[in-house]
Amino acid sequence: MTTMTIAKAINEGLRATLSNNPKTLLMGEDIGPLGGVYRVTDGLIGEFGADRVVDTPLAESGIVGTAIGLALRGYVPVCEIQFDGFVFPGFNQITTQLAKMHSRSNGNLTVPVVIRIPYGGGIGSIEHHSESPEALFAHTAGLRIITPSNPHDAYWMIQQAVDCQDPVIVFEPKRRYWLKGEVDTATAGLAEDPFKAHVVREGSDATVVVYGPLVPVALAAANAAAEDGRSIEVIDLRSISPIDFDTIEASVKKTGRLIVSHEAPTFGGIGGEIAARIGERAFHSLEAPVIRVGGFHMPYPVAKVEEDYLPDIDRILEALDRAFSY
Amino acid sequence: MGATHLPSTEFDGTDVDDQLEAEAALGEPPVEMVQLLGPDGKLGTDAMFSEYAERLDAEKLRGFYADMTAIRRFDQEATALQRQGQLALWVPLTGQEAAQIGSGRASQPQDYIFPTYREHGVALTRNVDLAELLRQFRGISNGGWNPKDTNFHLYTLVLAAQTPHAVGYAMGIQRDQRLAEANGMAESGAAEPKAAVMVYFGDGASSEGDVHESMVFASSYKAPVVFFCQNNHWAISVPTAVQTRIPLSNRAKGYGFPGIRVDGNDVIAVHAVTEWALEHARQGNGPVLIEAFTYRVGAHTTADDPTKYRASSEEAMWRAKDPLERLEKYLRSEDMADDAFFKQVAADGDELAAYIRKSTYDSETPDIRTAFANTYVEAHPLVAEELAWFEEYTAGFAGEDTAEGAGH
After folding, report:
1. Least CA distance to A62: which residue of chain B?
2. Which terminus of chain A faces fewer neighbouring Cβ atoms within 10 Å, N or C?
3. Which residues of B touch A102 (CB under 8 A)?
């Protein structure tokens, strides 16, 4: 066991995959000598050279597009998109090309590209630096989307993304980059399925499903609810596509109440998808409608008011109150 | 023919004869266009490229003619199949045979080709089964062939999206070569032949941002890639002048690599220029942009009506520059081919057309289960769940009279 931050855990995970697989390479803006704007790739260019840690031109479509070409040649590129709001110049390449290549080639071609995207708000930043666009990608068949919430998962999930034969987008909770935790670097970590949810706190009265940056928030809300005598189960979704509905369903059949919370706007979001599916699977177990706690239907607001936008402990507790009022 | 570098440039209107006037209006020196075989069927000379033409023996030239005839016949057959309702759509290439056969025949097996969606002639040169090529247009596949068999990638319908793929593939070739050198394979004789990538796009797609980004990446990393732009003068209904106010080949200057305009209806010149460019790239000298100056004689697709946007006189003017006719004139004048040859080539074309027709009629409609199977490489619970539902749903129709009632 080693204690490290999420940023360091991803760095170590990338170092491990670069060491283990000569076909892996990293590409992105400022990921070389600078080590990325969040220093996630710090030191890697010195160890692995400029052929494998590639500072690219400032062009997201070009980054993803050339990564696809490298993958067709047998490489496994890991692309860094500098910020969530800047992925959209590459959106066409991700959704019309990367996601469909295996399908449209009748299974003849694989493009195991990994795209890392720091996402989410709460860092007091300027426009386009705090967004949560995961639902836009989850709607696209052919992509897999995972998001670690702690250093241990961060260390292993980036390596598992590289090992996966499908394209994988790794959404990294940027406001938790400096969150410290224990990482078990023994290879047993590879046995954990990155596409399965984890029950991170057991409870019996209600279930709260969260992922990425909101996992600590939900755990704090569960602790606060415990003081009121409510036993809250918290699930860290970990994978946004596919979604591990089995784990959620089992929990809801036990608790009878479900809250889903994410920073992304609720309309058309992951919470709505979970609500619909759990409604089908566990209708008779539900004591209350599934309640979503998320961002509002507006462009991500300016930093000085983002606290009013982001789900926090009180908003999750308020949702729990509503769930218990039925 | 005297001068072989003919002046040419873009033009404001739809009258192609305005070329010289438009060029004069630019007030800049004319861009030279490499031409070896003129519309009159006479072979000129070129300081740089004649040596490439000299390597072409009679058999090679007859092969070019046979290829161009075959692909034109194929184009006619596919158009007919679309008219009969056998294909959903067809994208004709007539007029662009020399640009495609000349460049495709200049590539080597180890090179990798990224087409747009009109490169049927290039597909022929890469030994793609042309019956498989029609599967996409019949609606039974989104890519009817395995690119790994021929190093000819699938067609890409989102314009220019394949250009960064080509550059990335070329970056992979660079890394493979450096790894091989580091491992000492070059010295041991185990090295693969040097390879390059060629990517096709058109004058319309040249406006897409992906072309710009690709050229930036290619130039920055000196990637072994040839950008082959077929300027066929019309992006559906919009003339090239709306895409560019300078000759497209000039754009290469801005990226810092060579750009060449070649007469795209001259198969000998196209072959020469492409051979040079691919070798330039293979040897590690970086990318090249080739602009093949040609013309889409037919419609953009079978859903298009060119009479709405261009004059028939313009089409007639380009028909006079026909790539097949000029090569036929040359072959006959040099006694490289006789009537029997041309008769045989025509008969081979008819045979190809019959094969295409039969293959299309005989092609099987796929099962949607293959789409479930190919969405992901690895097992996916949502796909499995939806497939299980589909199986149960279709099983409910078992025993009904209408075999097609199963919803697929």
Report:
1. B213
2. N
3. 374-377
Q: β-strand A144-146 against A239-241: which pairing, if any?
A: antiparallel
Residue A29 neighbours by CB distance under 10 Å: 21
pLDDT of residue B184: 78
Cα–Cα distance measured from residue A84 to residue A231, given in angstroms and rounded to the nearest whole number: 35
The full set of domains in chain B, from first to last, is 5-362 (3.40.50.970), 371-406 (no CATH)
Please report which helix (H) or strand (E) contains residue B198, including its range: strand B197-202
B23 interfaces chain A, CB cutoff of 8 Å: no
Closest to B375 (Cβ–Cβ): which among A77, A141, A245?
A: A141
CA distances from B344 to B65, B120, B121, B338, B340 (A): 12, 22, 19, 10, 6
- The ipTM assigned to this model is 0.97
List pLDDT tens digits, range B299-315.
Answer: 999 999 999 999 999 99
pLDDT of residue B25: 58
Question: pLDDT per residue over A261-300, tens digit each?
Answer: 999 999 999 999 999 999 999 999 999 999 999 999 999 9
Tell me how far apart the alpha carbons of residues B399 and B385 are, in angstroms, rounded to a whole number.
24
- Contact list in B for residue A106 (CB cut-off 8 A) is 141-143, 146, 370, 374
Neighbours of A212 (CB within 10 A): 25
Mutation pick from B116, B175, B181 vs chain A, by most beta carbons of A within 10 Å, is B175
- Is residue A185 left, alpha or beta, with left meaning phi > 0 and alpha meaning psi from -120 to 50? alpha
Please classify residue B1 by burial: count the beta carbons closer than 10 Å to its beta carbon, then call 0-12 exposed, 13-18 middle and 19+ buried.
middle
**Residue A139 a catalytic site member:** no
Q: How far is CA B267 from CA B67, B71, B74, B342, in A?
A: 11, 14, 18, 17
Provide mean pLDDT across the span B70-97. Answer: 97
* CA A315 – CA A318 distance, rounded (Å): 5
B152 touches chain A (CB under 8 A): no
Q: Which residues contact A228 (CB under 8 A, 6 or more apart)?
A: none
Go through the domains of chain A in sequence order and give each one's CATH number: 2-191 (3.40.50.970), 198-324 (3.40.50.920)
Q: pLDDT digit string (tens) for A124-176?
A: 999 999 999 999 999 999 999 999 999 999 999 999 999 999 999 999 999 99
Tokens of B402: 């209408």
Residues 6+ apart with CB under 8 A from B359: B131, B134
> B143-156 pLDDT, tens per residue?
889 999 999 999 99
Q: If DSSP codes are grouped into helix, strand and coil, which group holds residue B259?
A: strand
